[in-house]
Amino acid sequence: MQDVGETTTVVWNDALEAIERCYELGWGDGLPLVPPTQGRVAQFLEAAGKASSEVVGEIPERRREITAGKVAANAVMAGCLPEYMPVVLAATEAMLAPLFNLVGPSSSMGGSAVLVIVNGPVAQKIGVNSRNNLFGPGNRANATIGRAIRLILMNACAAIPGLFDRSVIGHPGKYTYCIAEAESETHWNPLHVERGFKPGQSTVTVFASESPRQVRSVGHPEAILHAIADTASSLGTNMSTSGSVGSRDAGVRQGEIVVTVAGNSALWQDWTKKQVRDHLYARIRRSVADLKTAQVFPGEVEPGDEERYVSLIPEPEDILLIFAGGEESNMSSVIPSWGPKVGSTAVTREVK
Amino acid sequence: MHDGIHVENAGIPSVTICTDRFIPTAKGMAKMWGSEDYPTIFTQHPIENMNREQLRQRAEELAPQVVGVLVGGQ
């Protein structure tokens, strides 16, 4: 494949000049970049044991091959440390997997970001935050790994806002969107084990998704799950709009969903992840009457439509449940997918 | 754009209809594939809120241009 992406070598006199030059070249997300010096990029490649020219994946619709060198340069610019490189590489490989269909979520008006979920020993080793403020600021690994993914999308995959990224409103997760699961704080099997990996393996899972919707219900498990299901069932998510729901005759083909549950895991001692998923799956739905009123389905509301429901999730296994967030309270979040599962599917890759 | 360019390159005459809010994206994709001259018809945005009759009317308005490109070699 021809690589039409450009490599530019620039000479500068001091750091501030270099940062300004990066702006002039149109690189990046609007925040200052760490200048990707040849020495720093080489250091990152060495940390990952990769040659610069090694191909990590491709986005054929845009004629781009993504090399380890480009991943390293963007990881440097994002402010990563060299030891984050294996995680950034695995996340890049995952989002370039055909099942993820990057060209869809990276260009769509629906506007998604790539949520990166880190599991296994590497999360603790490099300090990916899984607790207080995990979606918020203040932690280098979360902030810069997520940012590196966005910079790779913009600089290497041509997902430029207004050009090939046609997101109508975007969302803050497009700056950075990286979390870990608090595996040692819960009796639940971590996400990567549920997805076929061993506890001792490290993985990243990428998920094309909307922003997190905070769920403030903090009572007993049934009450919390009731609120989570209600939030996940709201009209206006990418899971409940016409493009995702489609014809009633075509069967359910909506998207996956990430649910984070925080607080004290003892609250959930009588619940397995499977039980939580089954409970939610039965309740994340919308009546035909509501879907008609919202013009998701055509036609007038008819008698009986109030009692007929459409599930918004294909299978219980399409709920990616993780234990994550602060210890202070049992708050949760719901993260709807960018679109139907046929449009993009979460992908997990091992961190090597 | 992507599919239209590939159909054209396969020897089948094609034309892509695109709403005018997507002009930079359409032209960017054509440039990316080295097909800057690929025939594209731009129509007024938006079309997503149109009902069936409005959409049919828009299609009828555009049809002569489509025919012109496909058989006229424009």
Describe, in plain words, how this protein is organized in 3D:
The complex is a heterodimer of chains A (352) and B (74). In chain A, 29% of the residues lie in helices and 15% in strands. Chain A is α+β, with helices and mostly antiparallel strands and 352 residues long. Chain A has two domains: 15-210, no CATH class; 213-336, no CATH class. In chain A, strands 4-3-5-12 form a four-stranded mixed beta sheet. A four-stranded mixed beta sheet of chain A has the order 6-11-7-10. In chain A, helix 3 (68-78) crosses helix 6 (140-156), helix 4 (85-95) crosses helix 6 and helix 8 packs across helix 10. Chain A is globular. Chain A starts with 14 loop residues before the first helix and ends with a strand. The model of chain A has no long low-confidence stretch (mean pLDDT 92). Chain B has 74 residues and is mainly alpha-helical. Chain B is 53% helix and 11% strand. The two termini of chain B are 17 Å apart. The mean pLDDT of chain B is 92.
* Largest sheet strand order of chain A: 4-3-5-12
| Spatial ordering of strands, largest sheet of chain B | 1-2
Write down the overall mean pLDDT of chain A. Answer: 92
**Low-confidence spans of chain B:** none
According to DSSP, the number of beta strands of chain B is: 2
Strand content of chain A: 15-25%
User: How would a crystallographer describe the biggest sheet of chain B?
Assistant: 2 strands, parallel
What is the topological layout?
The complex is a heterodimer of chains A (352) and B (74).
Chain A lengths: L14 H10 L13 H11 L6 E5 L4 E4 H11 L6 H11 L17 E7 L1 H6 L13 H17 L21 E3 L10 H4 L8 E7 L3 E3 L5 H12 L9 H4 L11 E5 L11 H9 L3 E3 H6 L15 E3 L7 E5 L8 E5 L10 E4 L2
Parallel strand pairs in A: 3-4, 7-10
Antiparallel strand pairs in A: 1-2, 3-5, 5-12, 6-11, 7-11, 8-9
Helix pairs in contact in A: 2-3, 3-4, 3-6, 4-6, 8-10
Chain B lengths: L1 H8 L6 E4 L3 H10 L7 E4 L8 H21 L2
Parallel strand pairs in B: 1-2
